[in-house]
Every structure is written in structure tokens, then in C-alpha cells.
Here is the input.
Amino acid sequence: MEKVAAGVHQLSIQRFVNVYFVETGTPGEWVLVDTGLPGSEQAIIAAADQIFYPGSHPEAIILTHGHMDHAGSAQALAEHWKVPVLAHPLELPFLTARAVYPPADPTVAGGGSLAFVARFFPPQSFQLTDYVQPLPPNDVDPPFLPDWEWLHVPGHAPGQIALFRQQDRTLLGADAFATCNHESVPSVLLQLPKISIAGAPFNYNWQQVGESIRQLAALEPEAIGCGHGPAIKGPQAADGLRQLAREFRVPAHGRYVQHPARTDENGVAYVPPAPHDPIRAKFAVAGAGLGALVGAAWLMKRYQKRKQNEYPRPLAAEPKHSRTGEVMR
Here is the structure.
């Protein structure tokens, strides 16, 4: 558990993704920002009981976006606490099982180890119809958080939002960027601080990614918490984000580099064709070879069983016994 700023606590789930407990300003009242991976609900409930009091519950759950590592425990927590889930209207198709996010791009330049594991991520969508509500589109003040404003920062997810508190310049940046090298799984697990691009294989519109980073850098934050990485406080927060904005470059190649996916209020309107993925092709060949071996073994076993049924082994003759019970030779 780490304190990002006054009334803002960061909990790292499995050293991979962060959730935030944000106090509303009224004693004992708070909001949960993001819910981590599926199965994280018990850790989050235990942390809430520790920060506040046993049996404490938030006024609402705010999702910065609906990816699996941010919305994974939303339903379980909403059911447990009986509270609403709030998200940007453009996230609702993905949170009500009406659409799935654009596919990950494991071929993107600079994707690192995250790009490799992205090949095995399932399509991302949730069914939260009974709980999710849209954030008011014409009101930048999130419900229950009067000192905060939300900002639309797409590129990683269509309705991704960041949260900013002007009075102490605290920024919760979601996955608009990361506070660790998100392309290196070891860096994420070790929580090494470094402001960098977040989730490159999952960024579907690189122009929007750059615009969102520049928008947040202009806020000159003094404390930063993101979806991935440790909290960064002091002058290095604004300096690091300003440097990322200044040095931001679209990757040299990738599925969404030349032609971004297009989204609307109904979900995904267009996805460019997937480029050739040599690693995926190698896995396909290896999988086909393994399947052939398994199939051949099954056919051989079946053949041997059939031969046994056609030509059963002769039964061994029972030994004859004399009247005295001795075995006759």
C-alpha cells in the first residue's frame, strides 16, 4: 500500500496493476478507482477494511477504462458492496458485452516482453449491464469527488479517463502512460520507476496516445499514480511526463501505426488487417506438428486395440488335478 497524496491510496495487485482508494472529502466516504484483475476482490476488500474500517464500502466504483486488468473484479465488488460502476459513455459497449476491444498488436515496434504475452490475451469484454452507469458527458466533475475532474484521454481505450485534483496537482493517469517501463515485464514486477508509454500492444490509435500524453503533461502534476508502476512524487513527476511528451514518437511499425482502429458509441467500427506475425506462425506450425503426433499416437493405439479384438490371445489351459489334489504333470 502506498500513499500517493492526501486521501489517495494506491494498492498494487500482484505487483502488476494498481487500484486507488480516493477519499471524497467527507469523513469515512471514498471511491474506488479501477478494480484490478479478475479475482482481486478479496485483496481490495481487505485493503479497504484496513484503510477505513471493517465493512467499509465506497460510494461508487469508477473505471478509468474497461480492460481486463482494470475492470476484472468490477462485478464481484459491485455485487458485494451494492454500489454503481461509473465509466465514460464510450466504454459502455465493452462493459455491457456489446463489443470487444480492438485486438492486441504483438507486432508493434518496441512492444517488448508485453507484446509476446499479448498474443495469448483473450478478447476483452465484460457484462456489467446491471451495474455500470455513464459518467455525465457534460460535467467534468466525477460523482462523489467534488475536488476532482476527469479528462478524456483515448488512444489506449476509446473512453479512457484520467482523474486530476487541481488543489495539489495529483494525477491518476490510468494507462495514458505508465510510471514504469511497461514493455518490460521484469520492470513492472520490480516496480522500477520510469514514466513511459503504457501498453503499446493495446494502443489502437497512436495519434490519440500522443495527444493524451501532451494533454496530461500540460497539467504539470506533482504526484502521479497510473495503472502500472509505482507512484511518482515531486519535481520528477512533471519532469518525467514532460520529457515523455517531448520525446513521444509513433512506433516504426505495427498494426495501428498507419491505420488506427476506429471506434464509436457502438464499439469498434473498423480494424485494419493484421500484419504477418512470424512468431504466431511458428506457434501455429508447432501446434500443428504436436496435433499430428497426438493424432498418430491415438490412431496407433486404436489400431492395436482393434487387432487385439480380431485375434484374441488363446486362453492358457487350466492345469489338471489328480483325485488327491496334486497337479498332474
User: Anything to note?
Assistant: The first strand starts at residue 2 and ends at 5. The radius of gyration is 28 Å. The CA atoms of residues 270 and 284 lie 26 Å apart. The first helix runs from residue 41 to 51.
